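Hi support team,

I submitted a single chain yesterday and got back a structure, but I'm not sure I'm reading the token output correctly. Could someone confirm the output below corresponds to the sequence I sent? I've pasted both exactly as they appear in my results page.

Thanks,
R.
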Amino acid sequence: MNSPTLCVPQGTSQKAASLEGDERWRLALRVVRSPEFQKSARLRKFLLYVCEKTLTNRRDEVHEQQIGIEVFGRRPDYNPAEDNIVRVEARELRKRLDRYFLTEGQKEQLRIRIPKGSYVPSFEPNPCLENPECSLPVPDGDARTQVHPLRARMKGSFSKILGRVSWSTLVLGFLVAILLPVRLTEWRGKDAAAERSFMGVPSGTEASGIWPALFPSPRPVEIIAADSSLVLTQDIAGKIVPLADYFNRKYAEDLQGPEVPLIVSRPYTSLADVLVTSEILQTALAQQRRILVRYARDLQMRDLENNNLIFLGSSYSDPWIREFDGEREFGLGVDGPSRRLYFFNKSPHPGEAKRYYSGGQTGNTDETYGLVTFLPNLRNSGNVLILEGTNSEGTEAAGDFITDPHYASNIRQYLGSSEGKSLPYFQLLLKTTVLDGAPTKLRVIAHRTITPLQP
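Hi R., thanks for writing in. Yes, this is the structure output for that exact sequence:
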């Protein structure tokens, strides 16, 4: 795998030149010269910066503030709490590294990982070298190639109906949905070491400080993936499906076209849900907690009464969430004519709005909103966490907030709850800016504590 012509790229420090004979540095150079990184100068610079500092024994310079300054040109006094460009780009860097070692770099002896919660890269034996069926994350490109045959089959009356559906909705349902057949997947503690390694959780990593307060019971926590097929169906029909019709599978009876039953029957979920699920799994595995991943369509009312649950998406993609609306000050609404989603505010405080739309009132800005809701389940026998967004980026923002220790550690401050006390039930409304399809500049703009109703 060695190449005698690998030279130090322009912009790297003189100390990097001393690494020319280090196979780990040569691996980093091969990675940044791969097609996966050719169109992103920022990610190339990011990877080389953290690798150089690590390999020249300057790990103390590999932290968010310094990376923001040295790699992304931020001012020395910039605030990472308001500008999370490093975290956003780190997530993309991790994905591209996964894709490289799944494809072009499958035969590399070593693999570069940047564990979540740290920016210091690790150089590990490549698990795909000895195992050609290695199950690293599937590249996004594999999902994108599936759209053309699907579109080719859209004919007749149904394709006319689809003409009314926005392109972004089709992306959500078919391109971004990645055709994930989520049924019931469980991560068990008995293989915790292997699972932690696969998920990129470094040895010794502690779980987010907020996690034990959210789910103090050792009982499993169930992640409920949203139903993107339902989103498509509701957009086509122009109406919201009641929970009873969703539970009984009656909501597609009024729609015409042979493809409708196919969409309704398929367990599609969104890429945002997959990303947030991955973040939650890493947080849970760091604490060796059992996690179940389920699909919204497979739930029953007794699950809401007895289990610890994390809902992803919104009530538009998961009607079960509406069962908790009676205790929530903020909830999701749908603008009838435009089908735009927004968060409504039942009792606005001074300076707060009654509605919060993605893109603002005009739809022309890059702002979007996420909502984190923490409540007891319907019998007060466990807890429920709801991570919603007015679009997929909003859901990602809510997931980032609850899993990123940088944000999660501040939740008690917003709620006026001191460490060591039981965490109150709450809602946090988040505003974020979308940059290159990912949330950034995340901040809390409103919050409420909730007194739960008696079961």
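A quick pointer for reading it: The radius of gyration is 23 Å. Let us know if anything else looks off.

Best,
Support desk
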